[in-house]
Automatic annotation (TrEMBL):
Pfam family, one: HATPase_c_2
Organism encoding this protein: Planomonospora venezuelensis
Taxonomic superkingdom: Bacteria
Record's protein name: Two-component sensor histidine kinase
GO molecular function, one term: protein serine/threonine kinase activity
Annotated keywords: Kinase, Serine/threonine-protein kinase, Transferase
Matching InterPro entries: Anti-sigma-factor_SerPK (IPR050267), HATPase_C_sf (IPR036890), HATPase_dom (IPR003594)
Histidine kinase/HSP90-like ATPase domain location: 9-86
Length: 94
């Protein structure tokens, strides 16, 4: 869970305004339990949805969403009134 959370927050900080002008980024993170899963959601101000990429073997970044896609029970994104939300779910312990 920790790596997935770090990946979503890093993506929100890097791409959360939808441009590369270096503007201030505001994010919101929510963690809750739902139907036996732990759900992690990160909200940012960008209207652009994330894209899973296949980086070069020597690339130092770009693997976060691919790892979330492999390890999470579910993941996705949705538009919000202020941008978007990206989430992933992991099975929760009782």
């Amino acid at each position: 869970m920790q790596h997935g959370l770090i990946d979503l927050v890093t993506n929100a900080l890097l791409h959360g305004t939808g441009d590369d002008r270096g503007e201030r980024v505001t994010i919101r993170m929510v963690v809750h339990r739902e139907a036996g899963n732990l759900v992690v959601e990160v909200y940012d101000g960008s209207i652009f949805f994330p894209v899973v990429t296949a980086p070069a073997d020597t690339a130092e970044s770009g693997r976060g969403l691919a790892l979330i896609q492999i390890l999470a029970a579910n993941w996705g994104y949705s538009r919000t009134p202020y941008g978007k939300s990206v989430f992933f779910e992991l099975p929760a312990w009782p």
